[in-house]
Amino acid sequence: MIKKSIFSLALLTISSLGIAQERLYTPKNAHAHNDYEHPIPFLTAYYRNFGSIEADVYERNGKLLVSHDEKDVVPERSLEALYLRPLKKVIQKNGGTAYKNSHDTLQLLIDFKTVGVPTIKALVAILDKYPEISKNPTVMVVVSGDQPAAALWSQYPAYIHFDGKRSLQYTPAQASRIPMYSEDIKAFTNWNGKGIIVKAEKDHIQHWIDSVHTAGKKIRIWGAADNVNTWKTQMNMRADYIGTDKVELLSDFLTNRASLEYKGTTAPHAIYKARYVNNDSMGTVNNVILLIGDGMGLTQIYSGFTGNRGALNLLQMINIGFSKTYSSDSYITDSAAGGTAMATGHKTNNRYIGVDATGMRLPAIPDILAPFGVKSGLISCGDITDATPAAFYGHANDRSEEDAIAKDFLSSPVDIMIGGGAMHFNNHLDQLKEKGYGFSSHFDDIDTIQSKRWLMLTPTAELSMLKGRGEFLTRSLQKTIRTLGNKFFIMAEGAQIDYGGHANNLPYVVTEMMDFDEAIGAAMQFADEDGHTLVIVTADHETGGLSLLDGDISKGQADGNFSSNDHSAVMVPVFAYGPHSLEFRGVYENTEIFEKIIRLLKR
C-alpha cells in the first residue's frame, strides 16, 4: 500500500532536481469553486477558459441536483441541465474536444453531498447517456466530497476519477485513479490571506505540495481567502489549481501573467558611485539637466530598482521632494499640461501645449534663458513633437497638432533636439538648414556630428527597450552635454515608461525605468565632474496606478497590477543632485520646478 508517510518523506523536489520552478499560469489553472452559484453556471467559467469547474450534487431518486445547501435543492437545477448538456453542446461544436482547437483537459469536479454509493451509482447511470463526455480524453470527471470507500473504486468505470484525501492511504491501483489531491488550507494554517503565511506553516504546506508533485499528482487548496495575494501565494507554492468564486477577476489575473510579471531577463546596469560634489552647496549653477520620466511614480521607480537587482543611480540622491501634478481643468493631468507646467511655470488645461488656460502663448525655459547665454537641448525616446518635449518649444491648443508644433521649432532658440517624429519636420528641413541646423535621421551619426546646432530625428527613438532601442537615451544625453559645452539647459525624457503604463505591461515599465536610470547615472557623473551642474529627476504624472504584488530583488523579478490604463492623480517624486539640490525638498506645485530652474540659471 502507498502509505501516508510517503507524502511526508524528504523526497527529491522539483527544485532539488535542478528543474526550473518557473511555470506559466493561465486560466487553465483556475478552478471555479461553487460554480453553480453564478448567474450562468458552467458557461461563465468555461468561456473564461477555466481548467476546472465544480458542482455540488445531492442524489434524489436517481437524479443529481446541484446546490450548496440541501434546503435549496430544486428539480430544475440538475447536473444534466446545468453542466452535462451545455458541455455536450460545446464539445460537439468544437469537433470533439472540450476546448476548441485544443487537447487541454477540462476537469469537472463533482462534490458529493449525499452518501457515496447511491450518488456515484446515479452519476454513472447519467454519464452513460453522455459518451461525448464520459469517453472524451479531454474531459476528466473527478468525484470529491462523500466518495465511496477507496476499496470500491475498481467497481466503477475507468472514466470516474477521485479527489485524493491527504488523511487516507491508497493502494497503487487506487492511487492510479487519483489525478489530484485537495486539502483545506486550515489543515495547515489560520492565515487570513493578508501578508504572508508564518514560515513554519508555509514550509509544512510546501513540503506536502512538493511531495504530492513528486508522486505525479496535482494540488488544489481550498478554504483560502479569495484575493490576489492568496492567488499569488498559491502560485508561488506551485498549486496546480487556484480556486475562486471571483471567476472574472481570477481569469483576468491569470490571462495577463506575461504582461504583469517581469522575469529579470535584462542584465542589470552598472551603478555610478555618487561623489556628491557640491551636492548641498549653494554655489553657482551653470547647467541644469532636467530628466523627466514620463509616467514615473514611486512604484515604477521601485520596479526598476527590483529589475536592476536592488540598485538604481536615482536612489543615491538624498534631496527629494514631491510635486503636485493636477492641471487647470482636471484633477488628473495629462502630459501636455504636466509638461507645460514645468516648461513655462503655468498650470494649463489638459491637451494644451505651451499656452495658458486661456490659450495665450507662454515662453518656455529655453526662450527665457537664451538671452542669458544659456543653450538648450531637448531629448526624448519618443516623438519629439509629443506632449512633454513639445511643451519646451511648441504652442498649441491641442497636443495632436504635431505638424504645427514642429513648425513652432523654427522660432525656438533650442540648439539640439533628439527623438522620433521626423515626418512632422519634413516640410521645414530647408528652413532649418537656413537657420544653421544640421539634420540626421540615423542614430549611428550621433558620435560624428560636428555642428553646434542640429536635430537627430530617428526611428530608433521610437523603439522600446524590449524591441532593441539600446543606449539611445544615455548616448544622446552625453553627446548633447559635450556639444553644448558650458552654461546649458537640457531636458531628457524617458517617454516610454508612460507607454508601458498605458499598455499595463510591467516588463515594458521595468526595462524603460532601468534605461532611464542609466541616463540618470550619466547626468550624475557629469555633475560631479563639473561641480556646477544641477540634475533634477521627476515625472509629469504617474501612469497605470501600478502596484507591486510580489518580487525577488536578488533575481530582478517583479509581479505587478495596474488599476488603470491611464494617468493617476498621485503626487510624483522630485530628486535633485548637485548645487542647490536642497531647494527641491518639500512638497510643491509642479510649476515650482520651472521657477527654481529659472532663478538658478538667470544668476
UniProtKB/TrEMBL annotation:
Molecular function in Gene Ontology: alkaline phosphatase activity; metal ion binding; phosphoric diester hydrolase activity
Entry annotation: catalytic residues: S335
Pfam families named in the record: Alk_phosphatase (PF00245)
Positions with a binding annotation for Mg(2+): D294, D386, T388, E493
UniProt entry keywords in alphabetical sequence: Hydrolase, Magnesium, Metal-binding, Phosphoprotein, Signal, Zinc
SUPFAM superfamilies: Alkaline phosphatase-like, PLC-like phosphodiesterases
BP GO annotations: lipid metabolic process
Cofactor note: Binds 2 Zn(2+) ions.
Signal sequence annotation: 1-20
Binding positions (Zn(2+)): D294, D498, H502, D540, H541
InterPro entries cross-referenced by the UniProt entry: AIM6_PI-PLC-like_dom, Alkaline_phosphatase, Alkaline_phosphatase_AS, Alkaline_phosphatase_core_sf, PLC-like_Pdiesterase_TIM-brl
Cofactor(s) needed by this chain: Zn(2+); Mg(2+)
Family of the protein in this entry: Belongs to the alkaline phosphatase family.
Name under which the protein is recorded: Alkaline phosphatase
Species, as recorded: Chitinophaga oryziterrae
